[in-house]
Design brief:
By secondary structure, the protein is of the alpha/beta class. About 45% of the residues lie in helices and about 15% in strands. The chain has 2 domains: about 15-145, Nitrogenase molybdenum iron protein domain (Rossmann fold, 3-Layer(aba) Sandwich); about 165-290, 3-Layer(aba) Sandwich (Rossmann fold). The chain is globular.
């Protein structure tokens, strides 16, 4: 190879990797060794049929079930650079909700580009994420078809969901378990969970301006929810509605007294996905009651 040709090739490679490292729009070429640290992105990668490019995941990426066969590199907010680097990835793909920052700096320092795709907080931005992943992995047609079907399902689901007067809608406490501090959190406005709840015909029992509220017995009792929806990890620590209802504060609510406590997978409610229409329908059934 001539020196001139070698120089041009080296420049092209450098430009490609530079663009990836700084979050520029990647070339629509499949990436063959991807460590993805985002449960939403990982789900979407499977949705568009690009899962063969994944070599590792984060601890919370558990859907679809077959992704559990991949090694995990730890909790997305408490990553280890050594764990990621040991997988010899061609790229680390994230949604930005990762840490600590020095881990990402270390990953970049050894020549592994970090690509961040922010899904945003809206249905439209989540669908845009799906299309961006289609471009990234060369699965544009699959992504476009899936988004079209997803949009159609959402229109039908929202149209058919019950929507009575706001003051007559059941109050719902959405309980999430924080795995870093090992505490229970209430999901507050605004985000995917509350929007899904609204589509299903419910209203949030919490009004805090914070995205997550650390729950105490006083806050739970004061919210007086008619229904409690608990994500999987937190619900499973108790194992049944009866045991969950005995939690301090919960036992003083209509939801606890009437055992209107339901388990939902975190991946169904904490972000938007093609499964969102089914999640809306499920919650709408719970809100209608027995």
């Amino acid at each position: 190879m001539s020196n001139g040709r070698a120089l041009r090739l080296a420049s092209l490679v450098a430009m490609t990797w530079w663009g990836l490292a700084w979050g520029a729009a990647p070339e629509p070429v499949p990436r063959n060794r991807v460590v993805c640290v985002s449960k939403q992105i990982n789900e979407f990668v499977y949705d568009i049929g690009a899962q063969d490019h994944l070599i590792a995941r984060d601890l919370t990426s558990i859907y679809p079930p077959e992704i559990r066969k991949l090694p995990n590199v730890g909790y997305h907010r408490a990553l280890s650079a050594e764990g990621i680097v040991s997988m010899r990835p061609s790229v680390l793909l994230t949604d930005g909700n990762v840490g600590p920052d020095e881990v990402l700096d270390r990953v970049r320092s050894v020549g592994i580009p970090v690509v961040t795709m922010d899904p945003g907080d809206t249905l439209e931005s989540a669908q845009g994420l799906m299309l961006r992943l289609g471009d990234f992995f060369g699965r544009q047609t699959a992504a476009a078809k899936l988004v079209a079907s997803w949009k159609k399902s959402m229109v039908e689901t929202v149209r058919d969901a019950p929507h009575g007067p706001a003051d007559k809608q059941p109050k719902v406490l959405i309980v999430h378990f924080g795995q870093i501090a090992n505490d229970y959190l209430g999901v507050s406005p605004k985000g995917a969970a509350e929007q899904i709840l609204e589509w299903a015909g419910g209203r949030n029992a919490l009004t805090s301006a914070n995205r997550m509220t650390r729950l105490t017995p006083e806050i739970i009792a004061g919210a007086q929810p008619d229904v409690i929806i608990a994500t999987d990890v937190g619900f499973d620590r108790y194992g049944s509605p009866e045991k969950f209802a005995a939690m301090p504060g919960v036992n003083l609510t209509p939801a606890g007294k009437n055992l209107r406590i339901y388990r939902i997978d975190e991946t169904e409610i904490m972000y938007f996905s093609p499964r969102t229409p089914a999640a809306v329908e499920k919650i709408a059934r719970w809100l209608r009651g027995p």
